[in-house]
Amino acid sequence: RYAVRFQHLTLAVGDEPPLVDGELVHPIKTELCQWEVDTVDGERCLVVHLAKLHEYTEWTHLLRSEIEADVTITHKVFLDLTVGGEPAGRLVAGLYGRTVPRTCANFRALCSGERAAEGLSYA
Known about the structure:
Mean pLDDT: 86
Number of helices: 1
Order of helices and strands: EEEEEEEH
Radius of gyration: 23 Å
């Protein structure tokens, strides 16, 4: 079985569990992708040709699952919680700015109130 979508690839032989089944790191042009059975170094193999959506994008990995997340905490934020108007404690959260930099920056800005003038804050 072979299934390819905009950003997902599944490869399986017969009724066996998939050999590859995961989200691609980069999007592809599904209409230009193809597969073939070939012989490489005397062994039969399945060759899959994937067409990059953005031709000049460098692919260092095929599947997202191959990339290890950098779990270095780059920022810490806190939220002071209240229940029924009474203080209930402080929640401190570490943010992974190297893994999700944009999300980290947006959440940090919301927590700090620096975007309150734009009407965006948790206050």
